[in-house]
Specification:
The protein is α/β, with parallel strands linked by helices. Helices cover about 30% and strands about 25% of the residues. It is built from eleven helices and 27 strands. The strands form nine sheets. It has a six-stranded mixed sheet with strand order 5-2-1-9-21-20. Strands 13-12-11-17 form a four-stranded parallel sheet.
Length: about 425
């Protein structure tokens, strides 16, 4: 088939769902255009380690053109989608307008703030590489500023780091940040009494990791507390300000650092595109991952809202990967006249790391904790990283930290001016 006559598949988003859809279409009788505002793919499960000064940003990112160079029927366009014309099958991007025969929306998610006053304005996120670098720089700047402060109350406030959300991201970052403070920063800042520093984890529900078995939830809570993390369960955030977090049933927490990992929702750009959107911001799709009334449009990953066993599928990478592959296969089935397949998520298990030598895993009805779960987490994340170089760099940094108790990336990069270093606020709490 001549190239120009082949059906054109446009994929918006090069995260897990979009990238695996492109891979599944490589070599097929279609033209594919992959669109993303970044020219790299981010391995998002390790973003928190960039924010905890354990890995460089480049360790968990890989150039998209390097991935696609062996896929001659896949083109890359660095742009952002601005408008979707469903009637005329066109996508308007910041670079140019694209006509499509089939469209895969894989635009991912953003942080959800549940309309809590001040949460959006005064919280740091962990959704992108830029977010992770910003969090890392902020944490280091807090210690640099605290080293200059004579007032103990101000030091405690600037060295109190509050993480909102007791899901996997919040728990993993709480453990990683606690270890960073107790190991590297204790040696880096001898002038600071580290008892003035604290990591606080706030969760609205009465347990951490609600999707895990009860035994694993209890283990996570016990282990985090043994690391010195202050965990507040059943504590719903009422307001966030520049100097503290206010809770519904707990004393206010004086803090100048709030890292938000309490929830995610579909990217808000789709709200104006005429798609059926669920209350949590996802696009309602049919079991075949198609948009109702628009069978040429598929939605995968965090942007997709599909229930299975009576519950919406979780917004996690394995779901996005499987949906990306399934959407690509259904497009090929549609082109060849074969029946489309219903998407059924195959849950191969979940795991979380809690710091050095400790993790928890739930795999096919079996659950285990401690060192075996931690090793399995390390091996699987190394295996799924894209690029041999990235695997070597990540493994080297992990080994350096494990053997020497030293985080490798304790630098404020890019450089910030003195005026950007967080200072103690004189505003009343």
């Amino acid at each position: 088939m001549e190239t120009k006559k082949r059906p054109h598949v446009v994929i918006l988003g090069a995260g897990f769902g979009g990238l695996h859809a492109a891979k599944a279409l490589a070599g097929a009788p279609v033209r594919v255009t992959l669109v993303d505002r970044n020219n790299y793919h981010t391995f998002s499960p390790l973003l928190y380690q960039v924010a905890a000064a354990e890995l460089e940003a480049s360790d968990i990112a890989y150039p998209l053109r390097g991935i696609l160079r062996k896929m001659p029927n896949v083109d890359f366009l660095m742009a952002q989608a601005e408008h979707l014309d469903l009637k005329n099958k066109k996508v308007v991007t910041t670079a140019r307008t694209l006509d499509y025969d089939f469209l895969i929306l894989a635009l991912g998610s953003v942080s959800g703030f549940f309309d809590i006053p001040g949460a959006r304005e005064h919280s740091l996120r962990l959704k992108t590489l830029e977010d992770a670098i910003r969090v890392r720089n902020h944490i280091i700047c807090c210690f640099e500023r605290a080293a200059q402060l004579p007032d103990a109350e101000s030091r405690k406030r600037i060295l109190t780091f509050t993480i909102v959300g007791g899901g996997p991201t919040g728990i993993e970052y709480a453990g990683a940040l606690s270890e960073l403070i107790s190991s590297s920063f204790t040696k880096d800042f001898p002038e600071i009494d580290m008892s003035e520093s604290s990591v606080v984890l706030v969760e609205a529900q009465n347990s951490l990791l609600p999707q895990f078995p009860h035994r694993l939830r209890r283990y996570a809570l016990s282990h985090l507390r043994s690391m010195g993390v202050k965990v507040h369960l059943g504590s719903r955030v009422r307001q966030v300000t520049g100097t503290g977090v206010f809770l519904e049933n707990h004393d206010p927490i004086p803090t100048e650092t709030v890292i938000w990992s309490a929830g995610v929702r579909g990217t808000p750009r789709v709200l104006t595109w005429g798609l059926p959107v669920s209350p949590r911001g996802g696009v309602n799709v049919l079991p075949t991952l198609q948009v109702p009334e628009h069978p040429e449009v598929y939605v995968v990953g965090d942007l997709s809202h599909l229930a299975q066993d009576g519950r919406p599928l979780p917004m996690v990478a394995p779901v996005a990967v499987q949906q990306g592959k399934a959407a690509a296969q259904n497009i090929l089935n549609a082109i060849s006249g074969k029946p489309l397949q219903r998407f059924i998520y195959k849950d191969r298990g979940s795991m979380v790391t809690l710091g050095r030598n400790s993790g928890l895993a739930s795999v096919k009805g079996f659950s285990f904790t401690g060192f075996p779960a931690w090793v399995l987490w390390l091996l699987l994340h190394l295996a799924y990283l894209i690029g041999f170089r990235n695997r070597i760099l990540v493994m080297t940094n992990w080994a350096w930290d494990y053997i020497l108790f030293e985080r490798a990336v304790r630098m404020i990069v890019p450089k910030v001016s003195v005026d950007q270093i967080p200072r103690s606020s004189s505003a009343p709490f």
